[in-house]
Amino acid sequence: MDIDNEKFVSLIRSALRVLYDPDQLRRSPLANLLDVSNRVDASFKLQKILIDAIESIQPNDNEPAQSRAWLLHDLLYFRYVRGYERQAVADQLGISDRQLSRDQRSALEALAQHIWTSYRLEESANQLTATTDVPDDTPIPALSTLEDQPGESSWVSALPADRPSPWKATLVSVLDLLRPLIQTHEVKIACLPDDTLPDLLAPQNTLRHSLLNILSLMIPLAQRTQLQITPSLAGQALRIAICIDDEMESAPSLATQPSIGVARQLVESSGGTLHLTEEGHRLEVIFTIPVSAQIPILVIDDNAELIQLFQRYVQGTRYSVVGTSEAHDFFRQLDLIHPRIILMDVMMPGLDGWDLLTRLRQDRQYQNTAILICSILPQATLALSLGADGFLQKPVLPQDFLQALDDQLNRDGVEPKTESPR
Question: Mean pLDDT, to the nearest integer, of 203-216?
Answer without folding.
Answer: 84
